[in-house]
Specification:
The complex is a heterodimer of chains A (about 375) and B (about 90).
Chain A lengths: L13 E7 L2 E7 L6 E6 L4 E8 L6 E8 L3 E7 L26 E7 L8 E6 L2 E5 L7 E2 L1 H4 L15 E7 L7 E6 L2 E5 L7 E2 L20 E6 L7 E5 L3 E4 L7 E2 L8 E7 L7 E6 L14 E4 L7 E3 L17 E3 L7 E4 L5 E4 L7 E4 L5 E8 L2
Antiparallel strand pairs in A: 1-2, 1-27, 2-3, 4-5, 5-6, 7-8, 8-9, 9-10, 11-12, 12-13, 13-14, 15-16, 16-17, 17-18, 19-20, 20-21, 21-22, 23-24, 24-25, 25-26
Chain B lengths: L2 E4 L3 H5 L5 E4 L6 H11 L4 H4 L10 E5 L2 E2 L15 E6 L5
Parallel strand pairs in B: 1-5
Antiparallel strand pairs in B: 1-2, 3-4, 3-5
Classes of the chains: A mainly beta (about 375), B alpha+beta (about 90).
Amino acid sequence: MPNTQHITPRHGDVLVLVGTMKGAFVFHSSERGEWQMGGPYFPGSAVYAIGYDGRAGRRRLWAGAHSMHWGALLHSSDDFGHNWTNPESATVKFPEGTGAALTQIWQVIPGRDFEPDVMYAGVEPAALFVSRDAGETWSLDENLWNHPQRERWVPGGGGLCLHTILPDPTEAKRIRIAVSTAGMYVTEDGGASWRPSNYGVRADFLPEKTPEFGQCVHKVAQSRTRPERMFLQNHWGLYRSDDRGEKWVDVANGVPSDFGFPISVHPEDPDTAWIVPLEADMFRCTPEGKLRVYRTRDAGASWSAMTNGLPQKDAYETVLRDALAVDSLAPAGVYFGTRSGKLFASNDEGESWTSLADGLPPIVAVKTAIVS
Amino acid sequence: MALTFVISGPLRELAGNRSEVRIDRSASSLSDALSLLWSECPAFRDRVVTELGELRPHLNIFVDGESIRFSDGFATKVRDNSEIVILPALSGG
């Protein structure tokens, strides 16, 4: 096994958490200029889910590591990766009677500040797990699991995965999730009931182009400061909502393609968001061999290519749905990773980019946090 | 009257760095033998079988040298002094 480098971040440092097909890495920096890397953690295992919980005095990393041989387990570390939990029994697992077995953990996120012991996990096969004791124990959201439309959900290229969880910043009982390929579902009663919520979102691969559900939503982002404002990168389609996702309007204005995976919104400005368009579903690479992040400053009315410091020749890269993230500082830092293992950072909202790493395993997740 | 489980990889760490787990009991089938193993080493269960009780697809179990994929699966007969080997399969990329 490889030697693992260890890091010791301090209060206020920026963390960039990187999940790859062959392990996890953690970068930290105090000024977003010099970065130190820790890892690899879980070498050989795919880490699609990685997160940080800095609530209630915790400094806890989370990682969902999937070993091809030994299955998927959720681990945590309270010392920035020096030691990880290795639970005797899987904490996220399907109960008897569901007839399901966990394939992959796709998402692990802390709940909102007003629910400091709540955590959420999204998994494949598509299901939502909730913890109310800071991740010690987890339970399946049975109401979403037993949703009558589930039998018509079908797996996308990444499997039937619940890949996006958006607990509403201000409405305590409202949570939006996204599943490929089922589309978005929303609960307004804390998970007691779920309804599809995809109005205006296309499904080009179905005879009915705007069905009630069945869209291949790739990623959804919600503004923290104006929660009505959301952005959506679809499997063909780039959308904005101004009513918490009830209706979506096309905002693919001036982008080379409206196909892509990730989308992130600014921590303060609800009109600013970032995407990385790909050429097409049949050629999931950056168009024209140019690695370009596109940014809107006007809620999608226009998008501009951010290229300073990114390769613009023979760069046929792919950035997956969870591999773009924004920190909460001013100006906002933007980070993304590619399937070819390149990790880029911008400390000026995308105006310029630097390379943090150039040879990681294929990157599937990038998350950020500020050390509490 | 004993069963010997030969283990590898991360299972060893979960068994106190042992490469073998010996259980002084008898079992008539692999399923029974594994139940004894889960009692001795509870952390093995979720790593060897899924929630549905199926062998993980990239693991192999051999009973006295024969892969259970080519015998009777978990119903494979186990004898006194059988050796049961749990090994990662060839896979990856």
